[in-house]
Amino acid sequence: MEKKKHSNTDKGAAILFFLFSLLFFVLLARFIQLQVTGVADGQVLAVKAEEKYKQKRTIEAKRGTIFDRNGEVLAQDMPSYTVVAVLDPKMTTDPDHPRHVVDPEKTAKKLAPLLKMDVDEVKRILTKDAKQVEFGPNGRNISYELKEKIEALNLPGIGFIRDTKRFYPNGDFASYVIGYAQKEDKSEAAGKMGIEKSLDKYLREKDGYVSFAGDVSGFRLPNTKESIVPPDNGANVYLTIDQKIQTFLEDAMNDVEKQYKPKKIIAIVAEPKTGKILAMATRPSFDPNKRNIQNYFNDAISYPYEPGSTMKIFTLAAAINEGVYNGNEQYRSGYYKVGRNIIRDHNKVGWGTITFNEGVQRSSNVAFSILVEEKLGEDRFLQYLHRFHFDRKTGIDLPGEAVGQIHYKYPIERVTTGFGQGTSVTPIQQIQAATAIANGGKMMKPFVIDRIVDPDTNKVIFKNEPEVVEQPITKETAQKVLDILETVVTSEKGTGRPYQIEGYRVAGKTGTAQIPSPNGGYLTGYQNYIFSFLGMAPKEDPRLIMYVAVQQPKLSYTETGAAPVSHIFTSVMKNSLQYLHIQPSSEQKTPKTKTKGIEVGSYIGRSTEEAVKELKEKQLVPVVIGNGQQIEDHLPISGDTVIAGERVMLKTNGKTVMPDVRGWSLRDVMKVAELLGLRPSIKGSGYVISQNIRPGALIKKGDYLIVELEEPEKWKERMEQEQKEAATKKNDGPVE
Q1: pTM for the whole thing?
Q2: Which of 21, 55, 60, 418 is the one with CA 20 to 30 A from 677?
């Protein structure tokens, strides 16, 4: 028995020895292979080791900022936050400091009002079978201010994910010029419209990163080097747009849109001596923050249509330049035959025998038919259409520019083109052509991009310069055209009388364009026109040129199409000329109104008490900003004329604090923003009902001021209701 036992033991030992020997040789072979090749499972071991210990941190880059010509921000990246809720109890390691949502009902009641959601909806999200949840659109892209309010609630399990969003501080403001950029998934924002799209390659950012060897907890190991790839920030873009002039334009268009409800409004303000576009807007429009877009085309550059009588400016210029225009020559108005076709004046019967100058003032189609067919000749007139570049794009630095069509096949088309029918052009083509009239015969290429700047080095990557694209007429011709166009505005017979501006001489031409019908011919009816005006001021040395068109406004039978158009033109042009400190015309030919204003004195350096007293004596309303004893600055400035009851903002040498602007008009809010260097963001129109900076809070230059306005009627109802509630509480005593 003993021998048998030893025999089995020997066999077991032999088997074990064989297995261990085999394992040893396998490991030895593997070791030799790894030492020779350094490769395991198709991967280099050094790489695997590096991947295990290498840590990488993203360094976020910033998309380029878009500024106006004075450095005011029009579009920029802003930090934003997404609200999240942790629902998994396993995330809590210390019962005294829970890291998950403990009481969904209580959390929902406190969180819902701040996210502007129903309590039941928030509770439903907080009771999902999930580890972590978000709150949909209401919980994304929230501001830092809202994040602070939520944090102040100290709700267990509620946290935030930091991100950036593209922010447009002025909301619906030059929207088709600026466009918008949008993030897709978690990639960088990409430009989708306007400058954001056309300059995306300059504006787009590229994140950097830092990499280093670290332990499993993510901490850098000692005595190791780090590798840094710096972020590539997007370039900053400066536009020719002027925020103030654009604001004047947006406000005026909002008024007209509200009152007349037109199908379209198009307006452009430009510098005729440079071609710079100072303001450009259309209606309908959109807020780039919300992207509530109805029309994806910038009608100011993409909408060719028959311009109507504003085209007569260029027919007149051609006739004068060719020496065939005699303003005192007479003709028979009313109708004019072109083959089998009859052209009629807009009043159908004409004004009898009148001079050509009077024909221009009255916007006579017959006068311009004679100029094209009998004075200039159709071939020579076509040459001027080419000289004024009505046959090609302007080349403005905005995406989506279209070009009109010159219809010149039949005799009737050649003649009607002379007074703006049959042939189509875009608003920007008319602006470019009109620069020749306002700029001594030199036609300037329009542009909106002033320069592109590297934000890290301040090096100018690209700079636009004024460009003369043609000189279709002489300096003398341009002056004669201006002289005649001024009479369109000043003459009792002129169609442009509604466009007079107190203190300034205006030269321009009205237009009433027919709208083609889908069934052929043109639409009929009192309102079915595109009413327009192309004007320049001051006439003696035009500094601004402006085109306004309003399509199919809802007019009363006592109103003409000039009502909505002139409201935009006169208010924007006058405010812009005054803002640019352009002196009133020395030889004013427009009638003066009897409105008497109050001149604002100079209060800088004077005591606060003295300034307040003097302003009250002038029947003005002083608004003291800060607790200082001396005035540092004020708006309106010294020398400005205001009306009784207007607010005057006084900035003192004390701490700068936010005034209570609730109940104020937009104009007064903009005064505060300008005086204090705030960045305004406006929602709605009418009177202010809320402000993001609480009254009395310390503020600094560059802070965002977000105000919400309400229609005057609604605001009045709100005030009356609050007064009633206050009176009820006073009578009934305190409510438990």
Answers
A1: 0.70
A2: 60
